[in-house]
């Protein structure tokens, strides 16, 4: 059994270097919910040094709420905001000799596109328009994955060891109890449960989690001990 282990990074938390040795893919904030040119460049350099895949992590234009406030926009507006962010990171990546491998929306944009067909299609269209070689990462069983496949993109179905789930497979709102799984041991246990479901290509850890580095280290160890090969999505 193989699984990719990704993490949302470049968000100014200060733990990117501590996390990078344990993951295989990094989702790098593109400046609209967190980060700037300096953090994007630093995170790309870390990914290159540790042999980690680098991808774009676009969001709503919402730094005030860390991209976690739901917003509404036309398909054209969504396409513009996502396109701009990917291109910003891609430009810096080119200067650093890094080729982006994937795109994973952030926060509210991610969760809304998991349910909203038109939003999911708009994001998938942008990814394909930039490069058919980019992998679209989305919540397992979501509209995002469906839209990506229909658009002819490679997709990666994702699970969240550090987040609680609703019965329908969606993530529990961060405003509600049970949304965040805090103890590294519980995160690792949840990861094994998710992997055993057999529907996932990648597991995500949040870089802004209070135990992010400890979660990454323990999760990698536990996965390997349970016979799971950790390898980057391709």
Textual characterization of the structure:
By secondary structure, the chain is α/β, with parallel strands linked by helices. The protein has one domain: TIM Barrel (Alpha-Beta Barrel). Helix content is about 40%, strand content about 15%. The protein is built from eight helices and eight strands. The protein has helices at about 15-20, 35-50, 75-95, 105-115, 115-130, 145-150, 185-195, 210-225, and strands spanning about 1-10, 25-30, 55, 100-105, 135-140, 155-160, 200-205, 230. It has a seven-stranded parallel β-barrel with strand order 1-2-3-4-5-6-7, surrounded by six helices. Helix 2 (about 35-50) packs across helix 3 and helix 5 packs across helix 6. The longest helix has 21 residues, at about 75-95. The chain is globular. The mean pLDDT is about 95.
List keywords for this structure.
globular; about 230 residues; alpha/beta; TIM Barrel; seven-stranded parallel barrel; 8 strands; single chain; about 40% helix
């Amino acid at each position: 059994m193989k699984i990719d282990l990704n993490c949302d990074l470049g968000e100014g938390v200060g733990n990117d270097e501590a996390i990078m040795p344990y993951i295989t893919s990094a989702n790098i904030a593109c400046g609209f919910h967190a980060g700037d040119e300096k953090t994007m460049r630093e995170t790309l350099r870390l990914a290159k040094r540790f042999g980690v895949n680098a991808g774009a992590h676009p969001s709503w234009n919402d730094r005030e709420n860390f991209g976690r406030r739901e917003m509404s926009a036309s398909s054209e507006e969504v396409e513009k905001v996502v396109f701009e962010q990917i291109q910003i990171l891609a430009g810096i990546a080119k200067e650093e000799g890094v080729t982006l491998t994937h795109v994973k929306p952030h926060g509210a944009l991610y969760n809304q596109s998991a349910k909203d067909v038109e939003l999911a299609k708009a994001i998938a269209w942008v990814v394909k328009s930039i490069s058919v070689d980019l992998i679209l990462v989305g919540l397992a069983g979501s509209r995002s994955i469906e839209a990506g496949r229909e658009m002819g993109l490679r997709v990666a179905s994702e699970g969240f060891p550090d987040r609680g789930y609703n019965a329908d497979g969606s993530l529990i709102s961060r405003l509600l109890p049970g949304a965040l799984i805090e103890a590294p041991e519980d995160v690792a246990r949840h990861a094994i449960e998710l992997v055993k479901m057999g529907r996932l290509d990648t597991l995500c850890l949040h870089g802004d989690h209070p135990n992010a580095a400890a979660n990454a280290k323990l999760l990698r160890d536990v996965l390997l001990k349970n016979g799971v090969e950790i390898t980057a999505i391709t």
